[in-house]
Amino acid sequence: MGGSYKALRRMLYNLIVLAMLIAVAVESCPTPPVVLHSTLIAACSTEPARSAIGCSMYRFCGNETLQPAIFPQLCTTLKIAGSLCNDDANISSSLALCAQLRVQYTDDVQFRSCLPPYPISSTSAIKALHLHACEEMEGYPGDPMAGCDTCTNVFCPNPLASLSAGCIDMPMGQCDGLDALCTLGASVLCKKNLKDAPMRPPSPPPDQAPASAMVPPAVTSAYCMADSSLPQCTSYEYPLANITSDLSSLCASMAYMPGCTIWAACQAGGNVTGDFCRPMTLLSTICIDMPSMSGCKSYVALCKNTSAVQQCRSFPAIPGLPTTSQAKLAVVSGLCTANRTAMTPVLLNLTTSMCAACNQLSCRDYLTPLSSICSVSPGLNGCGTYYSWCQASAAWEVAAGSSISTYCKNQQPPPLPSSPRSPPAIAKVPSPPIKLPLQPPPKSSPPIALPPAKSSPPAASPPAKSSPPAASPPAKSSPPTASPPAKLSPPTASPPTKMSPPTASPPTKMSPPTATPPTKVSPPAMLPPAKKPPPALPLAKPPPQRLLRRLHHHH
C-alpha cells in the first residue's frame, strides 16, 4: 500500500509539473494542425501502431457500448495523434503522421508540451507491467488473472485492454498509470472512481479533407477492421482461412470453452452437424463468450454492435450454448456438489468419474459431464442450464436439418418423464376406451327391449290394470262377507268376468288401431298368450290368496 501511495503522489506531482509546462508553452505553440479520421484509421491498421496506446484509445472512443463513455476531450484526433507520436520510438518513427506533425515545432520539448500524451505514454512500459503481474500470478490456485491470456511475451495485440482487464480483476501495483488515465475521464477502463462522462456527441464531424480520402477505392480487410460500420463493408466477408486460424489459436489456448468443445465434435464427424459447425458461427460463439482473447481481435472489430457487415448477422452464435463461466458453474458448483447418498449406483459412478476429471482446478470439457449427468438425472442442480441450451438449439435442428444430438440427446425429453404429469396421463388413456364400450350397450339394449315392451303390454297391461281394481275393492269390501260368495262361484268363471271388463273398456281404445286385423289374428295370438300368461299370473296371484284367506275365515 505504501509503495502505491508514493507512486501515486509522484505521478500527481509529475502531472502538476506537466500542466505548468504546458501553461508556459501554450503561448509559444503554433496553430494545431488538422488530423483527419482517415489518417488515424490508416495509421492504426498496421503494426506496431495498431497495438499502441493511442490506437487502443481510438477504438475505445469509437465503442458506443461503453458505460460510462470516455470523455470526448480524450478522444479528439489531435489527442490520439499526440499519444501515438509521443509513444515508443519504434511506434512514432513508423508513422508518417508524426513526421508531418513535428515539422511545425522547434524541438521535441515543444512538441511534447503542445501535444501532450496520456498519463501513460509508453506501450512497452504498460506491457511490461502487465506481464510482470501475470508472472507473479503463476501457480496461483484459481483462475488466472484476467488479461493474462490475451497478452504474452510473444503476442500482445492490445496491451492497454489487457492491462485494463487485469487491473479490474486483480490490481497488483501495475495500475497506477491507468488509474491516472481513468481519473481524467476514462473511468470505464478501471471500473472504479467512476464518473459519468458528458453526453456523447452525435458523431464526429466529417473530415475537411478531399472526399477521396474518406471513400476508399476498394473494400479491404484493414479498412473494415478499422471501421466496420461503413456502408461499403456490408458485403465484406472475413476470409475462411482467417476464421480457421482464429479458431485454432483460441482452442489451443482454452480448449475447455464450450465453443471449442462443439468445434472438436464437428471435426470428429459425430452427431454435431449442419449450422452448428459453420466456422463463422463457431468463431462468433467463442468470441461472444471470451471477447478479450487475442484470437477474437478481428471478430470483435468486425462484428461490433454498429457493424454493417452482413456476415456477422448471417452467422450468429449457437443459441443457448452456455458460456464458459455458466458451464463451469453448472458442472462444478451444481452437478458435482450434489448429494450423492440418494443417487442410484449408475448415477453415482457416472458423477464420480465425471467430476474427478472436471473440478474447480481444471476441466478439459464442461459439456460432456453436463450432458451425460443431466440425461440420467435431469432434476440435479445445474441441469437447467443444459435443458435451456437444448431447447434453444432445437430450433436450428428443426429449421435447418442440423443436429447436436451428441449432447442434446433424443432422450432430452427426460424432464417430461420426470414430471409427475406424465404417469397419470398414461393411466388415464386406457380408461376412456373401457368406458366407451360400456356406454353403447345401454343405448342398444333399450331399443331391443322397447319393442317387446310395447308388444307385450297390450295383453299384459289389461290384467295388470284389472287386478288392482279387483284387489282394491276387496280390500275395502272385506267387511261384507256376502260379496265373496258372489265371487266364489265365479272362480271358474272369473276369467270371463275379468276379461269382460277389459274387453269392454279396452276395445273402445284398442279397437281403432286394431279393428279388423286383431279380430282375425287374435285367435292365434290368444293361444300363445294363453300359455304365456302363467309367467304373468304370479302378479295376479294375490287375489286368489286373499280369496283363500276369506274362505278360511268364512269356514
Automatic annotation (TrEMBL):
Stretches assigned to coiled coil: none
Compositional bias per record (Pro residues), positions renumbered to this chain: 412-423, 430-450, 525-545
Residue stretches of biased makeup (Polar residues): 500-519
Domain of life: Eukaryota
Keywords of the record: Signal
Residues of the signal peptide: 1-28
Biased composition annotated in UniProt, kind: Low complexity: 451-491
Region annotation Disordered: where it falls in the sequence: 409-555
Tagged with keyword Chloroplast: no
Protein name per its UniProtKB record: Uncharacterized protein
Organism the protein comes from: Volvox reticuliferus
